[in-house]
Write a structure and sequence with these properties.
345 residues; alpha/beta; 2 domains; 6-stranded parallel beta sheet; 6-stranded antiparallel barrel; 27% strand; elongated
Length: 345
């Protein structure tokens, strides 16, 4: 399913490193993985594929190039927190699996191993975890981990225990320090906090690319069309997907490989609706197109203002005209493709 064409191109307002396009090979179980060359492995959820993750990936590729090896990321689906705490995990993911795969391809990864996460795996001791996934599965020659990597039952496994297990099973282990951008330690949590505040520009800085939101367009009430601002109503393809704070944003919208300028409202539409239900509505600035049923991906460039209630439709339309001008100014420069996405949402 991963190789269906999903023609969105992610672009960047901040480029942490130039894209290194490779065809990433996707495997759905560590136990069936096979590589033709030695393996340099890293492990983690890599939600967001942010600057810290990319520093790990760069080191992974450096070692792979030195040793004629292949770079491999072992990640898990579903996210471990949703399995361990199904009722109260409070998790909001920065990426769908398809978005993550596309970002990793742009980062130059050779192999992405998506191993199923379940309670049986969660209850494995660090020793059994390494034996099953590493020794009997991926068989790495070198393992690269971040400074805070933990593994096995109750996160009992540490860098020291992984190093000792490496001596038993024949692989080296290297630990990388935390990654900082302008004295800020970059983490997925930090990016989520920025999105919750509507600060999509800081999120983009730490992600090395604008935040993406992918979903399918569904029928709306059609009120925007009567005011000259028809909208595409987006339902995220992942229920746990993080969504920026309520407000109006300038975005690039992608459908079938075409980039289009858009202004996007996230919120409860207090001027025209009493339902109190959040909606995500995209108005295309340059073209009018019926996108019903289409897969749409939004890349958030800037927050224009907060959502607020107006006295009536006339005042709202006047503000929408100002929003349109502001969005056009933000989106004056065409987006630069950071990677080619060939994955579904």
């Amino acid at each position: 399913m991963f190789r269906e064409k999903f023609a969105a191109k992610v672009h960047g307002i901040v480029v942490c490193s130039q894209p290194n396009f490779v065809d990433v090979n996707i495997h759905q179980n560590a136990l069936t993985f096979q590589a033709e060359k030695p393996v340099v492995l890293t492990i983690g959820t890599f939600d967001g594929v942010h600057a810290g993750h990319r520093s790990v990936l760069r080191r992974l590729q450096e070692i792979a190039a030195e040793r004629g090896a292949e770079s491999v990321l072992l990640t898990f689906d579903p996210h471990p927190r949703t399995v361990l705490h199904p009722e109260h995990h409070g998790l909001r993911l920065l990426n769908t699996l398809g978005e993550k795969a596309a970002l990793l391809e742009g980062a130059g990864l050779d192999h992405l191993v998506v191993h199923p996460f379940n309670l049986e795996l969660a209850r494995m001791s660090p020793k059994d975890y390494v034996r099953e996934l590493f020794a009997d599965g991926i068989r790495p020659d070198t393992v690269i981990v971040g400074y805070d990597h933990r593994f096995g039952r109750n996160r009992e496994g540490s860098f020291e225990s992984l190093t000792n297990l490496g001596l038993v099973h024949g692989f080296e282990v290297e630990e990388l320090p935390a990654h900082y951008e302008e004295e800020t330690r970059v983490s997925s949590t930090k990016v989520r906090e920025a999105l919750q505040a509507g600060d999509v520009e800081s999120a983009a800085k730490w992600l090395c690319a604008p935040f993406p939101l992918t979903g399918r367009v569904v029928r709306g009430e059609g009120k925007g069309r009567t005011w000259g601002f028809p909208t595409a109503n987006l339902v995220p393809s992942l229920a746990l997907k993080a969504v920026p704070a309520e407000g109006v944003y300038a975005c690039w919208a992608y459908v079938d490989g075409e980039a289009m300028r858009a202004m996007v409202n996230i919120g409860q539409r207090p001027t025209v609706s009493l339902a109190g239900t959040r909606s995500i509505e995209a108005h295309l600035l340059d073209v009018e197109r019926d996108l019903y049923g289409s897969v749409l991906q939004l890349h958030f460039m800037a927050r224009l203002r907060e959502e607020r209630r107006f006295e009536g439709p006339e005042a709202l339309v006047a503000q929408l005209r100002d929003d349109r001008d502001a969005a056009m100014a933000v989106l004056a420069q065409a987006p630069a493709a950071l990677f080619n996405s060939t994955f579904p949402a």
